[in-house]
Design goal:
The protein is of the alpha/beta class and about 280 residues long. The chain has 3 domains: about 5-80, Orthogonal Bundle (Arc Repressor Mutant, subunit A); about 90-160 and about 250-275, 3-Layer(aba) Sandwich (D-Maltodextrin-Binding Protein, domain 2), CATH 3.40.190.10; about 165-250, Periplasmic binding protein-like II (D-Maltodextrin-Binding Protein, domain 2, 3-Layer(aba) Sandwich), CATH 3.40.190. About 45% of the residues lie in helices and about 20% in strands. The chain contains 10 helices and 13 strands. The chain has a 5-stranded mixed β-sheet, with helices on both faces. Strands 7, 10, 11 and 12 form a 4-stranded antiparallel β-sheet that branches. Helix 1 (about 5-15) packs across helix 3, helix 2 crosses helix 3 (about 30-45) and helix 5 crosses helix 10 (about 260-275). The radius of gyration is 22 Å and the shape is globular. GO terms for molecular function: DNA-binding transcription factor activity; transcription cis-regulatory region binding. This is LysR family transcriptional regulator. Keywords: DNA-binding, Transcription, Transcription regulation. InterPro entries: LysR_HTH_N, LysR_subst-bd, WH-like_DNA-bd_sf, WH_DNA-bd_sf.
């Protein structure tokens, strides 16, 4: 079983091009081409149709996605678990959006380590797009994000309710002139712009998580931020809410792969709920 070839196949399928796959797996485009060619030879079928725009999965390639993900995940789990001390009987790869760690997930991490000393954890922070991708490709077992990608092989549950609110660190009367778009997902940016009649006049999009709030404060700008995240900044007066501005639902979800042990998934979800803000 050639795990490198499987990883290269999944990268090409995710990016839609061999050149994109080469960047993701840190290999030359010619190496990617050769790996896919050898994999197709061993399977006895074509996995991709290539043209000037990139590559598309064939029907056989679509069928191979599931087994390839399972193989890569099995390898990652095996490589990780064989290096663990004997006291760890279970393991979980977990990811959360950057801005959720300070106020939520760091405390949860302390809780779960104390409650489940037999559970080995590998945790990471990232942007929603990368976390969703890593979950789909089997690199992560469970994630907490505000913009999940719903799939048949991934379970999802609302963790807590939140909303995006318009805040400013400058003059509330000038919030339109000071507005900067903060990226919170695929569709919310378009919805916010349409509801408020805004144009991207600043030429800037922030995707910095909690650091976006710091930037707004430092530069006296306005933008949409999660209420849970900026509540302490509103209470301290560093940010001000723009009255009568529309708010937008922004719930957080916990998502996990269906091949995660059901008892472990339930245990972790319940521990996350205990740490989450009350509705």
């Amino acid at each position: 079983m050639d795990i490198t070839a499987f990883q290269t196949f999944l990268a090409a399928a995710a990016t839609g091009s061999f050149s994109g796959a080469s960047q993701r797996v840190n290999a030359s485009p010619s190496s990617v081409t050769e790996r896919i060619k050898q994999l197709e030879h061993r399977l006895g079928t074509k996995l991709f149709i290539r043209d000037k725009r990139g590559c598309q999965l064939t029907p056989a390639g679509e069928k191979f996605m599931g087994p390839a993900r399972q193989a890569v995940r099995a390898w990652e789990v095996a490589r990780y678990e064989v290096s663990l001390p004997e006291r760890f009987e279970r393991s979980l790869s977990f990811g959360g959006q950057y801005f959720l760690w300070d106020r939520l997930l760091l405390g949860w991490l302390d809780d779960v380590r104390e409650a489940a000393p037999d559970l080995a954890l590998r945790v990471t922070a990232g942007a929603w797009a990368r976390l969703n991708r890593d979950l789909a490709e089997g690199i992560l077992d469970m994630i907490v994000v505000h913009d999940p990608i719903f799939r048949r092989d991934i379970s999802a549950e609302r963790l807590f309710e939140d909303q995006l609110i318009l805040v400013t660190a400058g003059d509330p009367a000038r919030w339109r002139e000071d507005f900067v778009r903060v990226d919170w997902g695929r569709s919310l940016g378009l919805e916010i712009a349409a509801r408020l009649g805004l144009r991207p006049e600043s030429g800037l999009v922030l995707d910095l998580g909690q650091r976006s709030a710091r930037w707004l404060i430092t530069n006296g700008k306005s933008g949409y931020m999660p209420e849970y995240l900026v509540k302490p900044l509103l209470e301290s007066g560093k940010l001000t809410t723009i009255e009568n501005a529309p708010s937008f639902e922004f719930p957080a979800y916990v998502c996990w792969r269906e091949d995660v042990d059901p008892d472990l998934a339930k245990e972790v979800v319940e521990s996350l709920k205990r740490r989450s803000p009350a509705p």
